[in-house]
Write a structure and sequence with these properties.
Elements (H helix, E strand, L loop, with lengths): L18 H8 L1 H39 L4 H4 L2 E5 L5 E5 L7 E8 L5 E3 L13 H5 L9 E7 L2 E7 L5 H9 L5 E6 L4 E6 L7 E8 L8 H5 L12 E2 L3 E5 L2 E5 L3 E4 L2 E5 L11 H7 L3 E7 L1 H27 L11 H4 L4 H11 L8 H15 L17 E3 L8 E3 L1 H10 L3 H7 L16 H20 L12 H56 L1
Antiparallel strand pairs: 1-15, 2-14, 3-11, 3-15, 4-8, 5-6, 5-9, 7-8, 9-10, 11-12, 13-14, 16-17
Helix pairs in contact: 2-8, 2-14, 2-15, 8-12, 11-14
Length: 529
């Protein structure tokens, strides 16, 4: 007599019954219940993933709409220069659409120093001792203070270090001074990284006896002697006349009244001994600031395209067919199917997860209304999307937008601020609350999408993984199914174990009966003999 452990292949001892097959059939009802729970959980997970994908998509679109609350997007300007060898310029939305006159007498500069000739006097460049003192080390230390304007640092030269070590000490001093040494040219270079009259270079020795050969930077590195004074050498401010007014700037790039100027050269004809003479004699460059209609139109077209893309995605999910006759496949079902058949089945099983979803349908309506409803705070003719050429297609197109660029250009010509008013209106009430009817299109989209995103987050969270989302409705339902599946698995094991125990008992009883029959037969046989 041989019996396997419960759940294994049965060694039939006398009944002639396939116990494993019988138990499997008996457990089919329990297995069906477990499979149904797992399938329901899987559908929820698919729906949650679909929601999370929508959340990411609408969040990205919402980020895009924020730019349409900004003046730089709604009222772009373009700038031209009559002489780009003197100045180039850009302008933000705050710049007035006017022509500016500019004469440049002097560019801003920092301090740039270069060795007057080759610096090496020794046979080797590996150390300062060998490079400048022919192997005979000077006595004592050489310390100096290097200053750039108000910033300064104290540095000690190591005679046994190299000139590149000195370069590193200067560069890491944190005073906007950069040094370098070109071994091929055998020259030392030093400059300030800032410009203007506040920039400067002063290198003053604070310690070092005569054995160092005088001032190391002047006598050994052959820099101008002025650098070894406390006043040092200073940079220059940019000197220019803008719209007839003499101004100075520490940098060649600066912003005035919304226009950013980048000076590139001195004005032609700017000659004379003084800055004033140069400004009076220089030829003026004209900087023209105008509305960039092309950029504004392209910007609105980009918004319409982005809107249509997200709208098509959402409408696609709302109308996607739901195949209820194609539930998620169980592992047992997959095991007897071809891979291609599994793929085709699951494509239908996952279809329509958000079909006719009311939250998404409400989002679509919110987005449509942002463009179609007039902005109550605007009293002029351009108070809605349609008034500047943004219209909705036919009903069958699900709210797709179209932009009539000619109509938009006409609106911009009539009122250059039309986009700023229509898209950027804040809609704020005196008490700080927002009135959606007076709010601009961009604000309506931005706030309206946020409201729907919050609703989606409550329904399905913001991430597909239930392990990272425990508060959304879907996460709670999935957790509940996990518990039911665990309980069903426990019940399955208990019922299956009970069946095997019953069949074990039956086998034992049959074996005992068989043994008794054999004994009785042997007894009758003995008595007949």
């Amino acid at each position: 007599m041989s019996f396997s452990s419960i759940g294994g292949t049965y060694g039939l001892s006398g009944s002639g019954m396939d116990i494993d097959s019988i138990v499997t059939k008996l457990m089919m009802g329990q297995q069906a219940k477990s499979d149904a729970l797992l399938q329901k959980k899987t559908v929820l997970e698919w729906q949650k993933t679909s929601y999370n994908t929508v959340y990411d998509d609408i969040n990205n679109f919402r980020t895009t709409t924020f730019n349409y609350k900004l003046q730089g997007t709604l009222s772009p300007n373009k700038v031209s220069s009559s002489n780009t060898s003197v100045v180039t310029a850009t302008a933000n939305a705050e710049a007035a659409d006017v022509n500016h006159s500019l004469v440049v007498a002097q560019l801003a500069s920092g301090v740039n120093l270069t060795s007057a000739s080759n610096v090496t006097t020794g046979a080797s460049k590996d150390t300062i001792v060998n490079q400048f003192y022919d192997g005979v080390a000077p006595t004592g230390l050489y310390k100096f203070t290097i200053a750039n304007g108000a910033a300064s640092a104290s540095i000690t030269i190591d005679p046994n270090g190299s000139i590149n070590d000195l370069v590193s000490q200067i560069n890491s001093a944190g005073i906007n001074v950069k040094a370098s040494y070109d071994s091929t040219l055998d020259r030392f270079f030093m400059s300030t990284t800032n410009t203007g009259s506040s920039a400067g270079l002063s290198i003053v020795k604070t310690e070092g006896d005569a054995s160092w050969g005088g001032d190391f930077f002047v006598d050994k590195l052959k820099l101008p002697s002025d650098v070894a004074t406390t006043t040092g050498i200073t940079g220059l401010n940019a000197e220019f006349k803008l719209d007839g007014v003499h101004l100075s700037q520490a940098s060649n790039t600066f912003s005035i009244s919304g226009v950013t100027y980048s000076l590139t050269g001195v004005s032609p004809g700017a000659t004379g001994a003084t800055i004033a003479e140069k400004l009076d004699s220089g030829q003026a460059t004209t900087i023209s600031v105008t509305n960039d209609t092309d950029k504004a139109v392209a910007s609105i077209q980009s918004l319409v395209d982005s809107y249509n893309k997200i709208l098509a995605d959402i409408n696609g999910k709302l109308s996607e067919t739901r195949y209820k006759d194609f539930p998620p496949l169980t592992d047992a079902q997959k095991s007897v199917m071809k891979e291609s058949d599994i793929t085709a089945w699951e494509a239908k099983a996952k279809s329509g997860m958000l079909r006719n979803d009311q939250t998404l349908a409400s989002l679509v309506n919110t987005m449509r209304n942002a463009f179609s409803n007039p902005v109550a705070s605007i009293t002029g003719p351009y108070n809605s999307g349609a008034s500047i050429g943004i219209t909705t297609g036919t009903y069958t197109e699900g709210g797709k937008l179209y932009l009539n660029t000619d109509k938009l250009r006409t609106a911009l010509q009539d009122d250059p601020d039309v986009l700023s008013q229509l898209f950027g209106a804040s809609g704020k009430n005196p008490d700080g609350t927002i009135d959606p009817s007076s709010q601009g299109i961009a604000g309506r989209l931005y706030d309206g999408i946020k409201t729907k995103m919050d609703q989606v987050a409550q329904i399905a969270g913001t991430t597909a993984g239930a392990q990272y989302d425990t508060k959304s409705s879907f996460a709670k339902r999935i957790t509940a199914y996990n518990k039911q599946i665990t309980n069903a698995a426990d019940r399955f094991d208990k019922v299956q174990t009970a069946y095997y125990k019953q069949f074990n008992a039956m086998e034992v009883a049959l074996q005992q009966l068989s043994s008794q029959n054999s004994w009785l037969a042997s007894q009758f046989g003995n008595s007949n003999g």
